[in-house]
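Table 4 source record.
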Amino acid sequence: MRLIVGLGNPGEKYYFTRHNAGWLALDHWLGEVSWTNSKRFNALTYQDGDCIYVKPLTFMNESGQAVRKIMDYYGLLPRSLAILHKKDAALSDVLAVVHDDLDIEFGAWRLATDSSSAGHRGVQSIIDCLKTKKFTRLRLGIKNDLLRNKIPADKFVLQNFNSQEKSALPEIFTAAYLKKI
């Protein structure tokens, strides 16, 4: 089983914000699907074979709570945490987190494993709740120097993508998906 978690904030007003790049990527990859609102996990989930896609319904800074609940429920944490059912499985094979990254130029993306949160509070929440950083991350660049230099980071990430950025997102998400996170 594999979990692909898109980070974002719940609510219509946040949908097209830079901080919701993870949710937007999942919606692009999956198209029109019926998400299940799982109160048990406090997340929207969609299962396709042995892959579960997740949109935590917590706010960004508490994303780890939903991820931990799902990981516990399905027994997907490493044996070092005494929970993994799959012998010798690495957490990076089981968990991928898709999120915005303020340090990467808009349009670029990077894969990372076993790296710090670099100040991303949603990622830090997951690291704190799982007590490890050994998972895969797809870091989607949102940096835009014209806006970034005028707005503090916490306000910048809650700004909507502009129309040019919105129209470029499908191509960016498709290119990133082809790397098979």
